[in-house]
């Protein structure tokens, strides 16, 4: 019993808060943390651009004339706003929706399955979420900008 008490313990790891001014440049956020932050950003972006989404939906289904105006806004612009900027905003919405949807499925799976709440699954599912959302965004961006 005394030999167990006399063996030295390894030093415990020190956990401390992150200082935004000194540690933020060198701190490496894990992939799950990056996906979590991007999930919040994408949700906020979709909420912020909700008037644009409503305008796009309303203009696209009102009539054939309004749909032609909608297509013209994407091709040649709308007033002083160039069409490329409208396409970039639409692309940001596409990314936000895809990322938010895929990250939401990831969170739902982690809520349902106890085996999904591990550090390894968190890292691999976060990397898969990032990869799939970026890949689908690139594919839809190519369609949006007329590459196919």
TrEMBL record:
Cofactor(s) for this UniProt protein: heme
Entries under InterPro entries matching the protein: SQR/QFR_C/D, Succ_DH_cytb556, SuccDH_FuR_B_TM-su
Q: List localization entries.
A: Membrane
Q: What UniProt keywords are attached to this protein's entry?
A: Heme, Iron, Membrane, Metal-binding, Transmembrane, Transmembrane helix
Transmembrane residues, as ranges? 37-57, 78-98, 126-145
Top-level division of the source organism's lineage: Bacteria
Record function comment: Membrane-anchoring subunit of succinate dehydrogenase (SDH).
| Family from the record | Belongs to the cytochrome b560 family.
Instruction: Describe, as the record does, how this protein assembles with itself and its partners.
Output: Part of an enzyme complex containing four subunits: a flavoprotein, an iron-sulfur protein, plus two membrane-anchoring proteins, SdhC and SdhD. The complex can form homotrimers.
Identification of the protein by name: Succinate dehydrogenase cytochrome b556 subunit
Q: Which organism is it from?
A: Variovorax rhizosphaerae
């Amino acid at each position: 019993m005394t030999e167990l008490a006399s063996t030295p313990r390894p030093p415990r790891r020190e956990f401390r808060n992150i200082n935004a001014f000194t540690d933020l440049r060198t701190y490496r956020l894990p992939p799950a943390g990056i996906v979590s932050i991007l999930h919040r950003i994408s949700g906020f972006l979709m909420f912020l651009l909700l008037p644009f989404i409503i305008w796009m939906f309303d203009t696209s289904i009102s009539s054939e004339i309004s749909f032609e105006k909608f297509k013209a806004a994407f091709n040649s612009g709308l007033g002083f706003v160039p069409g490329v900027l409208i396409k970039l905003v639409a692309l940001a919405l596409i990314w936000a929706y895809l990322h938010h949807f895929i990250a939401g499925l990831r969170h739902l799976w982690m809520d349902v399955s106890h085996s999904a709440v591990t550090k390894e699954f968190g890292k691999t599912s976060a990397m898969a979420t990032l990869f799939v959302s970026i890949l689908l965004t690139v594919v839809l961006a190519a369609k949006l900008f007329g590459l196919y």
